[in-house]
Amino acid sequence: MERTPLSPETRKQLIIAQRNEITEHQIYKRLAQTQKDAGNRAVLEKIAADELRHYNIWMKYTGREVSPSQWYIRKFYWISRLFGITFGIKLMEKEEEKAQINYAEIGREIPEAIAIGKDESEHEAQLIGLLKEDKLEYIGSIVLGLNDALVEILGTLAGLTFALQNTKLVALAGIIAGIAGALSMSSSEYLSNKSEGKHEGAVKSALFTGMAYLVAVVFLVAPYLIFTSPFTALLVAVFDSILVVFVYSYYISVANDQPFRRRFSEMVILSTVVGLISFGLGYLVRILFGIDV
């Protein structure tokens, strides 16, 4: 039975769909080869096979081969390697949504499109949910470390900036407070996990918390080692804190399917309020004790 010719718009969307499918097939296939965990490798290979199957279905209707996007393959392969497979895959899926492939519209001419669309949105989401990554399993510890560092160290730097008005002294105090804070947070996280019976992940959880704390400290203290004006350094530190909040809020929103704006706004407001209070306290301390460095 001869197929009814496709409409130009449907054919155009099928070509886009084909390119997406074969590109993602290559990405999943390459990522699967990097996995030591057999479960993760099996999940990625299954998704890769599904993508190739979808590609072959579309090719039956278009009657042509479509080459994958090498740029997208390299881009999402390295994003996934650097920031975690789940983050890379979900970011890729978000970009795929922007391709504006209307499966319901295509389904009017190709009934199989409805099932494939459902497969893309539900089945792959279920499979992605099976992936296991340290970055996501310990995301709570990372957030804890970052949040505490941004609030505590930014507040400390703001207070010391007005009290001391010396970038080197403020940087030194910030580094000491940062290292002490990281060790304190790591030990607290370790003991907290042990008390809850989480013996296996206690050490990793503590390490993730401490490392996240130190990363935030580096971003906040660095301006005081670069600029000579303490107030310029403080402004840059505040900008750095907003940048850190933006990056990890975006990461969590993509990897864990959480709202970005709410988390970002809450953290920025909290850090700003604490910074202003600390800045005011630093001013009072300077006046009351007559500090002049």
From TrEMBL:
GO terms for biological process: intracellular manganese ion homeostasis. GO terms for cellular component: endomembrane system. It comes from the Bacteria. InterPro entries: Ccc1_fam, Ferritin-like_SF, Ferritin_CCC1_N. Keywords: Membrane, Transmembrane, Transmembrane helix. The keyword Membrane applies. It is found in: Endomembrane system. Its main location: membrane. It is a multi-pass membrane protein. The chain crosses the membrane at residues 169-185, 206-227, 233-255, 267-289. One of its GO terms (molecular function) is manganese ion transmembrane transporter activity. This is VIT1/CCC1 family protein.
